[in-house]
Amino acid sequence: MSDRIMLKLGGSVITDKSGDCAIDRDRLSGIARDIARARKDGILIVHGAGSCGHPEAKRYHLDTGAAPGQAGGIAVTHHAVSALNAGVVAALRQEGIEAVGIHPLHAGYADGGRLVAFECRHLDQMLALGIVPVIHGDVVMDRSRGACIVSGDQLIRFLAGRLSLQRVGLATDVPGVLDRGMVVPVITPATIQTLQIGSSTHTDVTGGMRGKIAELLELAEAGIGSEIFHVSRIPDFLAGRDCNGTRIIT
Amino acid sequence: MSDRIMLKLGGSVITDKSGDCAIDRDRLSGIARDIARARKDGILIVHGAGSCGHPEAKRYHLDTGAAPGQAGGIAVTHHAVSALNAGVVAALRQEGIEAVGIHPLHAGYADGGRLVAFECRHLDQMLALGIVPVIHGDVVMDRSRGACIVSGDQLIRFLAGRLSLQRVGLATDVPGVLDRGMVVPVITPATIQTLQIGSSTHTDVTGGMRGKIAELLELAEAGIGSEIFHVSRIPDFLAGRDCNGTRIIT
């Protein structure tokens, strides 16, 4: 396939946020089957951390950085999200997808909590060879803070334009962005102010739904629209059909 | 500690090259204890692949590259060397060293079999925070070849100058570079031509001892001398004492 798409799997979709790194392997298997039925290459997958990493990041206060002598939380947090990444990669490979996990701690560098570098040429070459890179929210070394948390949504924002991805979809456990219980079909920089969007009730060091929308609005302003939809809609998204979710555009 | 050193653990030191990825955990534990007794930070550790990765790289012909449809060997080879890396990291952490594994497949990019990029700022920040990065010979995506093998020795060559490392030591299962059974005390660009150096008898897709010396001579020409010594000499190297090995200098 010549077009390239990015699919984000929300952390709360693939883990049970009530436990400590409880990977939902049955759901992951179903998602991997849905993806493999639609296409086996030309996809870059990003996933959140869910219950694997968020509790550790919070316990070690990585959302505020890391100083010498406080480095212990970096390895522990990275280990937790890497375990989830291995689970996602294994589920995809089980379905015949040539998935390879890539860790932002290894590939990226941040300053003030924002990515300033992430090697993309290897991702580009992997996509050209039929490999599906699987990237995840992670702890990343930070010039000014020592270390920081880079969410899956920030990764989408950083990578989508650099890798010439035509479509970006975010599979979540809700049917879209909800405003007073209803799915908001379209969000633009002009309409975001009028919405009442609740914050996530779970442990989330990355800004919850508001943080997600802010990243996606930046992406839209860079020319790449995206859509937030329910995980059951992945086959529709991959086939280019309407997902009845929330589109974030300019 | 303010000085920074690089220690390379040869693949044949930490694995049994006769088997398929047979990690020598007892020897690794002893090495980790030796390191921890001398210092717990200010070190960057690089290790070879030994029997974890070399057979896979050869089976999939990764020494000659990878084309679309041949990507399968990349994940398999990376998986093998990553398993060894996890073993090295675990042995070091067991001794109280804040070790974190970093994969060249994630952090680097090559062209024509040579690294052209490798994120170093995160390594620099890790060293500043007291973390010991543990890097290894790996498959790396390559602009012209699709993928290639980057040896631990090439990594030393690429990283030592960029990370301002003052001393570079390579622990091997021989007491140094041997010429007709004797350790050669010093090798320079002028003397290398006069030596009779055997090639490795094991499966090695990275050029054996000749390839190693070529990398280290390049490093010497960039102003950083190095020493090849027997693994039992690690305490001497870390303490700055003579290792009775082979020094590669200009």
Number of helices of chain A: 9
Query: What is the CATH fold-level name of chain A?
Result: Carbamate kinase
User: Which structural category fits the helices and strands of chain A?
Assistant: alpha/beta
Q: What fraction of residues of chain A sit in β-strands?
A: 15-25%
Strand order of the largest sheet of chain A: 5-8-4-1-11-15-16-14
Distance between the termini of chain A: 27 Å
Question: What is the CATH architecture assignment of chain A?
Answer: 3-Layer(aba) Sandwich
Q: Name the quaternary structure.
A: homodimer
Helical amount among residues of chain A, as a percent range?
25-40%
| Largest two-chain interface | A-B, 37 and 37 residues
Give an overview in words.
The structure is a homodimer. Chain A is of the alpha/beta class and about 250 residues long. Chain A has one domain: Carbamate kinase. The first copy, chain A, has 9 helices and 16 strands. In chain A, the strands form 5 sheets. Chain A has an 8-stranded mixed β-sheet with strand order 5-8-4-1-11-15-16-14, sandwiched between helices. Chain A has a two-stranded antiparallel sheet with strand order 2-3. In chain A, strands 6-7 form a two-stranded antiparallel ribbon. In chain A, a hairpin with a 2-residue loop joins β6 and β7 (about 115-120). Chain A is globular. The relative contact order of chain A is 0.17. The mean pLDDT of chain A is about 90.
Properties at a glance:
alpha/beta; 16 strands; homodimer; 250 residues; Carbamate kinase
